[in-house]
Amino acid sequence: MSLRNIYYSLSPELRLAVRKLYYLPHDLLQQLSGKRSELQPGKGDIYIGSGDFLSQGKKQVQTLTDHIDLKESDVVLDIGCGIGRTALPLTKILTTGRYEGFDVVKKGVDWCKRHISINYPNFHFTFVSLHNDLYNNFKAKGEEFSFPYPDSTFDKIFLFSVFTHMRIEEIQHYLTEIKRVLKPEGKCLATFFLYDQDFASKEPDDGFSFPYEYPAGYRLMSKKVQSANIAISLDLLNRMMDTAGLQIEKIEFGYWNGKIAKDIALNFQDTVIIKSK
Known about the structure:
This protein is an alpha/beta fold and 277 residues long. It has helices spanning 3-9, 12-22, 24-33, 53-68, 87-90, 106-117, 168-181, 197-200, 234-244; strands spanning 75-79, 98-103, 123-127, 154-159, 182-192, 194-195, 212-214, 218-220, 230-233, 246-252, 270-276. A 7-stranded mixed sheet has the order 3-2-1-4-5-11-10, sandwiched between helices. A hairpin with a 3-residue loop joins strand 7 (212-214) and strand 8. The longest helix has 16 residues, at 53-68.
């Protein structure tokens, strides 16, 4: 059994606790030495993504600037804002705009309120108690959740590594809600794991695979934790966009499946630029 599978076998609460304990020596050393900025959470508190927290956030903001023309006056929505990885560097960009972010993990939202909102009043963070079997045991379903914002509110919407951790029904509903709250000329950037028939039977060399296939057109990494990681076929994604009244403007394929070289790929995951029909 791989370390990833062992991790998924734990309860959501235990997963967060194990990470906190694993990085405790590192975080204590960083704190005592003064090497960690106040605007940087400890590694044990970071439950999303990998790599350097600050540099990854800056790279994401650069991606938003380059691919959906992020402007200082934009009203933006960060779906799955986590513990502020993208929000932190955005504080230097959205000087006259407004930021809204929500997440299903309370510790991340609380950290952002304490460390970001207090200094940047145009940045707002909301905790939503929706079920996600990777992170919690809440009962409320994502496919029944209405975003707490009026229609046509946002110039730009983005989701980094969010649709990769949701069930198909939730993704479809979120796409519909994105259509509702996005301004008519607005743009959305979201990352996915996408595949076509050539990849369906292929396993990447590093073992990052999706062995459980479903007729609807998606594959899971784990049957036990269905929100662990999901890959979606390109055909299914296009149908889902059409149902939501959205369309794909561009796809920048990532290097996760070995088809694109790491040094020329935009991201590990596949990056999709979305607009209204």
